[in-house]
Amino acid sequence: MKVLLAEDDTMLGASMDRGLRMAGFAVEWVRDGVQAQAALRAQSYDLLLLDIGLPGLDGLQLLHWLRTEHLPIPVLVVSARDAVGDRVAGLNLGADDYLTKPFDLDELVARMHALARRVVGRAPSELQLGRLIMRPLRRETLLDNQPLSLSTREYDLLLVLMERPGNVLSREQLESRLYGDHDELASNAIEVHVHHLRRKLGSAWIKNVRGVGYKLVEAG
Q: Is the model's pTM score more than 0.85?
């Protein structure tokens, strides 16, 4: 699971970053609301851990922007503000859960996993682009109503592109969604998966925008 951690407290942020990585999460840590907004604009995450008292753009403002933009990322607020009014404000603005500081890391991880299960339950049952259909809950792909046999990585890559048809995604964005933070990842891994997908789909479906990245388009 790729997580964006928005926390300005250096000691707490470092502790959360380290603990979540040890628990198997791929974590990107930012220290103010403006950085968090820029990160959310640039790529997709599976979960946002959000402190309310961020400099630059506070957590409630960021939440309002997220939901106004209809970004579906689940948000777990982690805040020292424990008044009922603060919790209600966060939840009313679109937070999915609210955890007050101090907290136990095991409880945080358990809540993150619970949110992930909830998101799977509300995932779209079907995505369609012309003759191409994907059914995420079944991990099924159909082209011209015929099933396609895809490897795990091929399926995951196609699903990321299918979520934003017509939008160009960079190799770095695709690597981040598929692999998280892996220093030993082969430099041409995405290109290899794209090559295999084109052989199975047809080359016209995935366009290479030179120097930028890849996008999924409807083939005639």
A: no
